[in-house]
6-phosphogluconolactonase
Amino acid sequence: MSVPTVIVHRDADMLAKAVAARVITRTVDAQSAKGSASLVLTGGTVGTATLAEIAASPARDAVDWRNLDLWWGDERFLPDGDPERNETGARRALLDHVDVDPARVHPMRGPDSGMTVEESAEAYAEELRRAARPEDHGPAPSFDVMMLGMGPDGHVASLFPGMPALYDERPVVAVHGSPKPPPIRVSLTLPVIRNSREVWVVVAGEDKAGAVRLALSESGPMQVPAAGARGRQRTLFLLDRAAASKIPSSLSRISSP
Ligand SMILES: O=C(O)[C@H](O)[C@@H](O)[C@H](O)[C@H](O)COP(=O)(O)O
């Protein structure tokens, strides 16, 4: 597993723009190397702002959108089209504006599918299993990039501190009683997150500075789930200055003046 690299940008706006540029470049690199790429999207403010910046970037046309698999790290268990769904946010910010192959967009299902949240988690696990290839060494694809937002409590995806889901070996779990509303969610688990080639934890805001410090420390994932978010080849903590304000300066690279 990789040791995190910390990169700090001036503010949330610059962070979203810089991460957008990074997503475009990484996707183009993966597509030139192997023909296609796989990206895991996150909900939340910075995650969605990043998608909007991708849509706004002229360089977005360098991406072969039809040869891209898009997955989600977590989803709020709400009906299709609900404005609170991470999928709805991603579609409005980016997917409605680019030529994605609908068969390669993999949303987690909501209650309108007729499934319970447990069935939805199992259906997603099955979809991941079908997409996994032998070289992925596991029940899910080894994604090129997994983007994750983080909460002030250190949660990533819908893995909250102290929750049994943090011990779960299954690739996808149903979450009840999320402290961040809405309470019912579907989430990838740490084994799938950690099997990604690259994990990018994207965080803005002073309220998250303490959790960022802990996520980069020796804390266990049970206390600070983001401390368990590491990629096989690369882990990036992409932060704005406020979110980076409590980490030792020796850890961070300031890259926006
Ligand atoms: O469904 C969700 O809410 C998320 O995927 C969650 O993990 C989110 O990324 C963080 O809570 C950060 O969200 P904010 O950037 O809005 O604080």
Q: What stands out?
A: Residues 4-245 form a domain with the Rossmann fold fold (CATH 3.40.50.1360).
